[in-house]
Amino acid sequence: MSDEADDLYDKYIDYDGRDLDTRNVGDGKVVRPITAENFEMEKRTLGEVLTDQKFNVPEYQRLYSWKNIHHEQYWSDIEQFVNADLVADRREVSDVFFSSMYFAVNDDKQVYEVIDGQQRLTTTHLLLRVLMEHLEDVDPASIEDDTLAEFRDYGIGRITDILYVEEMFGKREPRLTLNKHDAEFFKALMMGPSAQVDYLKNEADFSIHGNNSDAVQVSECLDRFGTTDDELADLDTDSLSSGAFFKLYRSHRRLLNAYEFYDEKISGVVADAETPDETVRALVNILNYVYNSYHVGEYLIREAESDFRMQIFEILNDRGVDLTKIDRIRAAVVNAFFDTDVKDEYVDKWEDIVVAFATDGDAIDDYLSIYLSIVDDGIDRIGDASAELTNAFDTRNIDSDVVPRLRNLDEAKAFLDYAHDLVDYYQDITTTELAADDLELASHREQCREILVRLNNQQMDQWRPFVLALYYHTNPESERDAAQFHRVLETIEKLNLRRLLISERPSIFREVFIEAVEEFNLAPTAEATPDSVYEASREYLITEMRSSTPTLFGDRFVDTVVQTQSWSTGTARLLFGKIAQDHFDDSSRAVERDLNMGNIHLEHVLPQTPVSDPEDPTWLREFFKLDSEPDIEIASEIERYIELVQRSDLDEEEERLKDNISEFITQGFIDDIGNFLLLRDTDNIGASNRPLAEKMTQYYSEIDGFASIYPNRYFTAEYGNVDRDSLDKLREQHDGGDVSNVDADVVAYFNSFWTYETLQDRRIELLLDILSTLGFDSFEDEFGIESDQDEVRHEIREKTDQEFEKRLSVRSL
């Protein structure tokens, strides 16, 4: 900075009126005391509030919830100060009214219970920690101004006094303690590398799959903590695997994000300094500005009963403090048990629920809504349950049909007991990383796991209240119960797959599953369910859905499915996955059982980009048989499309025509059910847009077990229409997918194999598979397949031929 600069890098702002040897300016010369002189209330500087007592965030308070938008607002006042011209008597920057803060305090204790203000208080501690770390990074020997060297040490000492207290035997602890969920992680952030390693070794929850959105690697977390390799070298990390994943709760993630936000901002301030002296001067000026020029309206509640503190908290909520639904429920639970002998037990049960969902408020809301829809007869839909949660977790009923469950201690205990008990069951049926061993279902664990994984990928959650309630009542040791539970899951999945196939919304199920809970008395408070509940509930679901949505059944269902074009890839993927799992045999059991929804994808035989090389439009010429005097109306339009693709000088009308034909090809053929294959690899194969001869080499060499996946059988020599000799030659002669050495007649055979006619043939067989897979054994041959499969195939062929006659006509464009 130049000698003439007037900013926080150049001058020390003196709040104490001392005689200093370094360049300085009195605070009254540059800071306008608007708040100090005009705010009529008992006020203190933030620095006064932060010292002389410890702070504790009580259990009923929310978790740390500030996001980036809040930090930007918080930093904006400091940013104005950083960018101001600190010319004497100009006073371009003002002091700040920081906020009102409410504390409860007993006079015989030096601990403030934070009733309101914990988000700002926590954030300020994180900012000060960052400031201290940057001051500590300045080498004292590099500072030329002796007074600034003293200010560096003074700044570090002042922050230390604010952030920490000395306990017995000189042990230092954070002055601020957050609530149970956030306390240990916040302490690790505030205490530095040794505490951070101890947290990861002793407190972190490693029972999480790496694919989970809440999972983070140890190495990444240590890097985000700012822990250096030299610091780690001095610590005991032998039992800590850097590649291991642990659960980083949402509130912990926000604390870490806040730390990184202010570290980035302060690093920017340091980067703009040209010398160590300027760095110290800037950092200490920011510290003193926050300490002295931030004013707080402090409200103290002394010697108050616990219920009065809760009243204050609730009043602040009603006045618009931005608390989430889960924050309010937490406060209500703590209040319900506050002065009871079982307070710790039931607050811990609530905390177990919160931890089970990694403090994710939305996930907790989802679970509690499912739970409430099971136990309260006044709930008809899951969405209604979500809207009524705060009424259920209350002591009185105001304009709601939902029963308030915290009216007395016994009701509150029972309500929370069952909510706590059902968490594990709920996670069993909903987790995306579900393992068969997680399920308490005798020898049917794997079969049930497969269906549950697919159900959780089927765009609806209406089934969850019924399945959760039934699972809770299922005897985990009973083979019969497990088998019957599996049959119920099959029924639910078939109903939902039928829904997807006729493009109905999930709302068609919005009441039937909750009504089934009531119909069969499946609430957790019920006695053991009768053996007949499984069969009876299956029949109930089918009967109710047949009555309310008849298009899911019989000929109307078949007609709709046969006429469907532009199939959803998500639906097709689920269907193919189910068909594949339903058709494994003993010889391929190991292969098929490895087919899970997390590592499969749909492959388009006719590619999504059918003309990847305009000079070689092989796919369209072969698929529509353009080189063999085609007898389809659309042939001339396909020729026209190829010509348009090969040109680069299209006018607006020609571009529109090209797009229209492209959309026609996609909807009528590329996205038809007959054009899909099921592959295990999570990524598309490298030759996905290449002619079929090249793709077939990868289907059989790169995609393990391609031929064992039942929906792919049409492309096998054993069960499909592929010529065995041609397939053997292709596999023997290709070189890593390169077919230039393969006999020309073999390449020509495969490139011409897939046409609109073969797509129709395969489509018919797949539709038969779908009807067979989705049939209910309680119906007597619903689709006629058991009595005369050839006749059903003939009917499907007739309807398919009619459908494709329309698709292949010019009228379709």
Concise account of the structure shown:
With 813 residues, the chain is of the alpha/beta class.
Supply database-style keywords.
16 strands, 813 residues, 53% helix, 4 domains, 35 helices, alpha/beta, two-stranded parallel sheet, six-stranded mixed sheet
How is this structure best described in words?
Strand 7 and strand 8 (about 110-115) form a beta hairpin. The N and C termini lie far apart (about 70 Å). The protein is an alpha/beta fold and about 800 residues long. It folds into four domains: about 10-175 and about 260-300, no CATH class; about 325-430, no CATH class; about 430-550, no CATH class; about 570-810, no CATH class. It has a six-stranded mixed beta sheet with strand order 4-14-7-8-5-11, sandwiched between helices. A two-stranded parallel ribbon has the order 1-2. It has a two-stranded parallel ribbon with strand order 3-6. About 55% of the residues lie in helices and about 10% in strands.
